[in-house]
Design goal:
Layout lengths: L1 H19 L13 H13 L6 H12 L16 H5 L3 H4 L3 H8 L8 H14 L3 H9 L2 H10 L5 H18 L5 H13 L8 H14 L1 H6 L2 H11 L3 H16 L1 H4 L13 H4 L14 H19 L3 H8 L5 H9 L4 H14 L11 H7 L15 H9 L10 H15 L2 H10 L3 H21 L2 H4 L6 H8 L5 H23 L6 H14 L1 H14 L3 H11 L13 H8 L12 H14 L16 H17 L2 H23 L2 H8 L9 H9 L2 H9 L2 H9 L5 H10 L7 H12 L2 H16 L5 H12 L5 H14 L3 H10 L7 H9 L5 H8 L3 H29 L2 E2 L8 E2 L16 H5 L3 H9 L2 H10 L6 H17 L3 H10 L2 H10 L3 H14 L3 H9 L2 E3 L14 H9 L13 H4 L23 H4 L6 H6 L10 H8 L1 H9 L5 H6 L10 E5 L2 E5 L31 H4 L5 H5 L4 H6 L22 E3 L24 H6 L13 H6 L9 H6 L2 H10 L16 H7 L6 H6 L1 H4 ...
Antiparallel strand pairs: 1-2, 3-6, 4-5, 7-8
């Protein structure tokens, strides 16, 4: 996207520059033969003299110019000269080699516009792989890299070069040349420092190339470039695109070899895990803090994006020294900056709202309350519909939320690696604002674990032993103890907020919810009111006293009245104007009436954000109800109020919209709450009559037909009561069909509010309205209605109502089809569709294509939920959004044909007869993972089997095929990591039923066994069986503990292990307990010196397993069998719990750091002490004031009732039904999913076959080089002949010099061949030797005939010497030879060999200069002494400028640039050295091509006929 965006932005610049340059308008005669036109174009382009640059530009543009269709006088089409004549060489009159030989000369022109036009012409020419091969064979890629490297106000040229590069990738990425790759990577590495505007475009192209040809990118260090730019980029959209490229390569075993395991991906963690991290050595000291913040932000984005993909999760969480352990380990180091940053990362990973930075826990807690006000809830925005979508839960009860599966896996992995213990350390040992954030995060994670983690993953989490021990122990510093105690109290408040649930913020939504509840509980409400009547005594006296105390009768300062008492009076049971004729009550009513009437402008003009605004409105609604209950006595007052409201409405709607909103303050004042008064009246039959009498409904109907009254209509829709058939539904129906698009959309969204609020009889009238909206002219509205219907069909009553209406859904595309498939889940709908032959057609379509489409649909929804991508309703391409924090999204499983059919026996029988399941099982058992199409087919089969297994009927079919073990195997061992993620989702579907959970349990997978409607789930009854079996353990053990100091630095003795688990009870033990080591004899002895004995055997067993649990926490890699068999060793830290009568003390001993473990930073996170006993005492979180004696008392029924949030407490009364589990399963050992087979890093011998020279250069050792480092050069060219400096040659004896010069094959070039030279490759293709003398000099075949004796007239016995005044400064800097003369004192025109001068135009001088240039160029690949090497090259450029006018030397240097790593400044310096090369020989080659007689074009008679 970056490349595209930059290309578009430069398009206008390119056009503008070309017009300003004075391009000549060269006419193109389209009546001539295309071959003649092409010859004319190539002749003008190839001429060295006689044709102006602007004329060349005109001819090149004719090559690609759009042609006007004069026959029909249409706009210019996209057809070019090439398109008109096709790609047939016979029609062109030239073969492609000839065309390329001529066109490449444009890339050597001194005018940037001509070079840009030449690149554009090549882009149009390259249409297939064969032409691209010819372009690369002629080494045009050297010139393309040259255009990218040089930056001299030539953005037009560089833009065209990048477009050409993308075209090459599109045509055939496997042929992509390393020369251009190195150029792109150099810009990507150093472009920011060089202020190169093309840096993002180049990085985007590198990413594109990495997906198509990862080998060439990895070989050149491109993956290192991508990861470097991840830390450089603070834009989430670009950052995510970069890291996703690496994750895509990690996903498949064939491309995983290009990414170094445990090295490259972990780079994104470095800003957090390396306290001395410095991204660039050039960063000034004053900018270090700002730079560090930028790196934190970029690293955070990269980490979050990594945890959003299966490849990233598995690579960062795999057992051993993983990235997740590094992150959690750093939490235990008291660095506040790192802790603050990591907490923000964790909040984002778990999709939790980030609290404000504050030291007050309550303030932070309110900032993350789901019911807190959001800007999108304003009347001018989404209003009640947006608020309800956030506050009210989705109606889905049986459909799995795939986000739950994803979060459960992430949470389990973090908990397994010690996140909770790390958070406890942060809470008790950090600054206040960090501690507050860590406490809220801990509460959120515990709540999440209670909701979505299987029992084996979560039963030991809620005891928080470390935190409780700290709060209860006096052996730790007071500050730490107080922090722990405060954290427990804060967690209690957090639990209360969660238990309360989200509360509506707006009174409109609260009004809807309360009325819906009241409708369903009328009888209970009536009984409660009657009961209250008998409770109250002295009602009349109390009423009069309250009237007096309310201050209403005393003064008219309305806002100073006691509004609490006013509300109490209005709600007083059995008190109204009909029963009480007291004048004081009437005065009270009249004053309230005057306050609330719009015409008085008292209540109406108050601001919405006024402190008592909500209270005043609630009292106003109670006032209307009070007048309603007063019947005839209050009717006059009520009528007066309603008529005044109608008058205000008419005045508002009669004005222009701007004046209406401004003068009446609808958006900012309490006047908008008058609609709540109307809504309150619409809930009562007498109120409806009053509204009809005062023409309120007629007024609202008139509003529907007026334009620009969107806010009034929103308030109308959101306030009326629709539970009864009447004018309220008529108004809603009219707004749904006759209002503006915005109002129709809002009214449609409000139907979702009514659905979720469970408004009475919604299936009778709401479904009909939604079906009507399916045919709305706006696609947005019809899509919204379809989505609401999909949610409504979770309720069988709504589904029956929809089937009864028989709606037309075919015009709604795939989503309409999925809604229609819901009909098949019940016999009535199945019969309806089967009679029309629909089921048979759908079975065939799903078999052929829809199973595959289903994969795209699910992955598209997951992508939108987990990334910054958003797919528009109209269009097929993703668009990215800005980086805004969103609430946690939901991805409810889309409907699947097979999943609907298995809901009843008839559908299952149909699947069985069609033999569908057998074929799906075959795909799962014999997967082909080499092609993406086959991987997609495997995913389609897995999703189909998962949907089939989501019911007991379908599960029986899967059991017959015995395919579940195969799915489990794929989940643990599949080398394509995204397949493992699919398997986790699919196994969750199988875990929707109790039978499925039992099957998975047999394979060591645990499932969540509760439905979504249970807010505080508990575990099944088998935990009671566990407790009963544990009670059979002998209770003769007496418990006491040694002092902490005596055992702090000691290790446990090795002793034979013994098991306290009774026979036959292992299957009921929690998985965590099963994996513990059996207590050693030494462990039991250490607990035996007790002067206080327990009578509870389960407590004895719990404390006896304490050390085993510590061992397991410190050595999580032990297998199940090893854990049960091996004796206790290496106790790294000891936790002492001293128990005495009426006391509970705990000493927390900090863990010793085990430096033998290879953790980043050498830090192991603090592991808490966890016992099987303490999990029963989690109630202390909710009741922090519990007596210490209660903590040790036996569990009784009252305790269970007081601890409703504890998952490990058993309550069969609240245990849900077994057929609607949320559909989530995880392996008991979460690390089973994270095992990845090690793939060795790829070897350089695997270089693509088109690049034979690279294979020769990187023969065996380059594979292990760090990508993108200067060290690559040394190893890359270790097979080249030894480089000798010119001074070394001159200082050698004559005979040695003669031998050396003879051994160089007389060229001075080492890697020069006919295939890698711009000039020589054309000689080979054209098949002739040039006659020009200048060209002949460059040919090494002629140099072989020049004997060494011709260079020197006499034999020289003395060593070769350098005359300083003649040759000083050529290589002195790089060789360290002292020079007496000045480099600029005398212009050197000849070399001295001994006492004989060597003219600079002789072959020997040319050879020596070539060697010196190549040596200095190679040395530039190192960052050492760069200035010295540049100085040497500049000196040669100054003294021997003709040296750089050498095509073969330039080709050799280009070959070096394409196979070695050079930094961008060095590449530019080298390219600019050769910028003045005339390349005369290449022009002669082009003239030779054009001098050949033209081929007669073959006329295609079939086309003419």
């Amino acid at each position: 996207m970056a490349a595209v965006g930059r290309g578009r932005s430069l398009k206008n610049l390119r056009i503008r520059g070309r017009n300003d340059s004075g391009e000549e308008n060269v006419p193109l005669d389209l009546t001539r033969e295309p071959s003649d036109n092409l010859r004319e174009i190539l002749q003008n382009v190839a001429k060295l003299q006689g044709v102006s640059n602007m004329r060349k530009l005109g001819h090149l543009n004719n090559f690609t110019k759009k042609k006007l269709d004069r026959k029909f006088f249409k706009e210019p089409t996209n057809r070019t000269l090439l398109c008109d004549i096709g790609l047939n060489e016979e029609k062109l009159g030239f073969n492609y080699e000839d065309i390329i030989i001529c066109l490449r000369l444009a890339l050597l022109n001194e005018a940037k516009e001509v070079r840009a036009a030449g690149l554009r012409a090549l882009r149009y020419l390259i249409q297939d792989s064969s032409i691209l091969q010819k372009v690369l064979k002629l080494k045009v890629d050297y010139l393309i890299a040259r255009c990218i490297d040089i930056q001299q106000s030539n953005e037009v040229e560089r833009t065209q070069a990048l477009r050409l590069v993308r075209k090459m990738i599109t045509v055939n990425a496997s042929l992509f040349p390393s020369s251009v790759t190195n150029s792109l990577i150099a810009v990507g590495n150093d472009g920011l420092q060089e202020r190169d505007r093309m840096v993002r475009a180049c990085i985007a192209i590198i990413c594109e190339l990495a997906l198509q040809n990862p080998e060439v990118v990895a070989l050149r260090g491109g993956l290192n470039t991508i990861l470097k730019n991840v830390i450089d980029c603070q834009l989430s959209r670009i950052n995510e695109a970069l890291i996703t490229t690496i994750l895509h390569l990690l996903n498949h075993p064939k491309t995983r070899q290009y990414v170094r395991a445990d090295v490259e991906l972990e780079r994104i963690l470095a800003p957090y895990t390396d306290f001395h991290y410095r991204h660039s050595p050039d960063t000034a000291e004053g900018q270090l803090k700002e730079d560090r913040e930028a790196r934190f932000l970029a690293s955070k984005m990269g980490i979050i994006a990594t945890f959003r993909s299966w490849a990233g999760i598995i690579n960062l969480c795999k057992p051993g020294n993983s990235g997740i352990q590094s992150l959690i380990g750093v939490l235990c180091i008291p660095n506040m900056e790192i802790r603050r940053g990591l907490l923000e990362v964790l909040y984002d990973i778990f999709r939790l709202p980030l609290p404000v930075v504050t030291e007050e826990f309550i303030e932070a807690l309110l900032s993350v309350d789901p019911g807190r006000f959001q800007d999108s809830w304003r009347l001018s925005d989404g209003f009640v519909a947006a608020e309800a979508k956030t506050i009210l839960p989705h109606r889905a009860r049986s459909r799995p939320d795939l986000m739950d599966n994803y979060l459960a896996l992430i949470l389990s992995a973090f908990i397994r690696n010690g996140l909770l213990e790390g958070l406890v350390e942060v809470i008790t040992n950090s600054d206040d604002h960090i501690s507050v954030r860590a406490t809220i995060l801990l509460g959120e994670l515990l709540h999440m674990a209670n909701t979505i983690l299987p029992h084996s993953h979560s039963h030991h989490l809620h005891c928080l032993p470390t935190l409780m021990n700290m709060a209860a122990s006096f052996d730790i510093p007071k500050e730490k103890r107080l922090r722990a105690s405060a954290a427990l109290n804060c967690l209690k408040r957090f639990h209360e907020m969660k238990k309360r649930g989200p509360k509506p913020y707006s009174l409109h939504l609260d009004h809807i919810i309360q009325k819906a509840i009241a409708t369903h509980q009328k009888r209970d409400q009536y009984l409660r009111v009657q009961k209250d009547i008998f409770v109250l005594k002295d009602t009349e006296e109390a009423l009069l006293m309250n009237l007096r105390d309310s201050q209403v009768l005393q003064h008219k300062e309305n806002l100073e009245w006691n509004w609490n008492l006013i509300g109490t009076i209005l709600k007083w049971p059995n008190v109204n104007l009909r029963n009480y004729k007291d004048e004081q009550l009437h005065r009270f009513v009249r004053r309230l009436l005057y306050f609330y009437k719009p015409s008085s402008k008292l209540y109406a003009n108050l601001d919405l954000d006024f402190a008592k605004s909500k209270q005043l409105t609630v009292v106003g609604c109670q006032f209307t109800e009070f007048l309603l209950e007063s019947e005839e006595d209050g009717q006059g007052y009520l009528e007066d109020l309603v008529k005044d409201i109608v008058q205000w409405l008419n005045a508002s709607s009669g004005m222009k919209p701007e004046r209406s909103l401004q003068n009446n303050g609808l958006l900012t004042t309490l006047s908008q709450h008058y609609f709540l008064f109307i809504g309150t009246l619409s809930c009562h039959p007498h109120g409806v009559k009053m509204l009809e009498k005062c023409s309120v409904f007629q007024c609202l109907l008139n509003l529907c037909s007026l334009k620009n009254q969107d806010h009034l209509l929103k308030l109308t829709v959101s306030s009326l009561d629709y539970s009864r058939d009447g004018l309220a539904r008529v108004i809603l129906s009219k707004i749904l069909t006759a209002a503006t698009d915005a109002c129709r959309l809002y009214a449609t969204k409000h139907l979702r509010v009514l659905l979720r609020a469970n408004v009475e009889f919604f299936n009778n009238w709401g479904i009909e309205l939604l079906v009507t909206q399916l045919h709305d002219k706006s696609k947005t509205i019809s899509s919204e209605a379809l989505d609401i219907l999909d949610e409504a069909c979770e309720d069988k009553a709504n589904l029956h109502a929809l089937i009864q209406m028989k709606p037309a859904l075919s015009h709604l595309g795939d989503k309409g089809l999925l809604l229609l498939l819901r009909f098949l889940s019940i016999p009535k709908g199945f019969s309806y569709l089967n009679e029309r032959g629909y089921v048979a057609k759908q079975l065939e379509k799903w078999h052929k294509e829809y199973n595959s489409k289903y994969v795209d649909l699910i992955e598209e929804q997951l992508n939108e939920a987990l990334t910054t991508y958003r797919k528009p309703i109209d269009g097929d391409n993703y668009v990215r959004r800005s980086n805004q924090r969103l609430q946690r999204p939901h991805v409810y499983l889309p409907v699947h044909l097979y999943g609907q059919l298995v809901h009843h026996k008839t559908g299952c029988h149909l699947l069985e007869v069609q033999n569908i399941i057998t074929e799906l099982c075959h795909s799962v058992r014999t997967p082909d993972l080499d092609k993406w199409e086959e991987i997609k087919k495997l995913k389609a089969s897995l999703w189909a089997l998962g949907n089939i297994g989501s019911s007991n009927w379908g599960l029986n079919l899967l059991q017959e095929e015995n395919v579940i073990p195969d799915i489990l195997k794929l989940a643990k061992q599949c080398e394509v990591l995204s397949i493992r993620g699919t398997c986790v989702y699919v196994l969750g579907l199988i875990a929707k039923t109790k039978q499925g959970c039992d099957i998975l349990k047999c394979h060591n997978w645990d499932a969540v066994r509760h439905s979504r409607k249970h807010l505080w789930p508990v575990v099944p009854d088998d935990v009671e069986q566990l407790c009963n079996e544990l009670s059979s353990v002998p209770s003769t053990l007496s418990l006491n503990s040694e002092s902490t100091s005596s055992r702090h630095n000691s290790e446990s003795e090795s002793a034979p292990s013994m098991s306290l688990v009774p026979p036959g009870s292992s299957h009921t033990l929690p998985r965590r307990a099963q994996s513990l080591k059996a207590p050693s004899i030494a462990t039991i002895k250490s607990l035996a010196d007790c002067n206080f004995s327990y009578t509870s055997s389960r407590d004895a067993f719990g404390y006896a397993t304490l050390k085993r649990l510590q061992q397991q926490r410190m050595h999580p890699s032990l297998s199940h069998s090893e854990a049960l068999a091996s004796p206790a060793k290496d106790v790294l830290f000891t936790d002492t719990i001293t128990m005495k009568a009426n006391s509970f003390e705990s000493r927390l001993t900090p863990s010793r750091i085990d430096f033998k473990k290879k953790h980043v930073g050498g830090i192991r996170s603090l592991r808490p002490t966890i016992t099987n006993n303490l999990f029963r005492f989690m109630k202390a979180l909710s009741y922090a004031s519990l007596d210490k004696e209660d903590l040790l008392s036996p569990i009784n029924q009252n305790t269970l009732q007081r601890s409703s949030s504890v998952r490990s407490m058993v309550s069969s009364a609240t245990y849900g039904s077994s057929d609607d589990y949320i559909g989530l399963a995880l392996p008991v050992d979460i690390n089973d999913i994270f095992q990845v087979k090690d793939i060795p890093y790829f070897q350089a011998k695997n270089i693509p076959p088109h690049d034979d020279r690279g294979a020769r250069v990187f023969a065996h050792d380059a594979g292990g080089l760090p990508s993108g480092t200067g060290g690559l050069v040394k190893n890359s060219f270790h097979l080249l002949r030894q480089q000798m400096s010119l001074t070394e040659i001159m200082n050698s004896i004559h005979s040695d010099a003669s031998l050396f010069l003879e051994s160089t094959e007389d060229t001075g070039l080492q890697e020069h061949t006919d295939d890698n030279c711009l000039y020589c490759v054309c000689i080979e293709i054209l098949g002739f030797q040039p006659s020009n003398q200048l060209s002949a000099i460059c040919s090494h075949s002629d140099l072989q005939d020049i004997p060494y004796s011709d260079w020197c007239e006499q034999t020289i016995h003395n060593p070769l010497e350098v005359v300083p005044s003649k040759f000083s400064g050529i290589s002195g800097c790089s060789d360290g030879v002292s020079q007496e003369g000045s480099a600029s004192s005398t212009k050197s025109t000849e070399l001295l060999l001994g006492v004989k001068t060597i003219p600079d135009d002789t072959p020997m001088c040319r050879i020596l200069l070539r060697k010196e240039v190549l040596r200095l160029v190679i040395n530039l690949s190192s960052s050492v002494s760069t200035k010295c090497h540049e100085t040497g090259l500049l000196t040669i450029k100054e003294k021997y400028p003709q040296t750089f006018d050498d095509i073969c030397l330039y080709s050799e240097v280009s070959h070096l640039l394409s196979h070695c790593t050079f930094r961008l400044p060095c590449r530019r310096f080298i390219q600019e050295l050769f910028q003045d090369v005339q390349f005369l020989q290449m022009h002669e080659e082009a003239e030779a091509v054009l001098a050949t007689p033209p081929k007669q074009p073959i006329v295609d008679t079939s086309v003419e006929s």
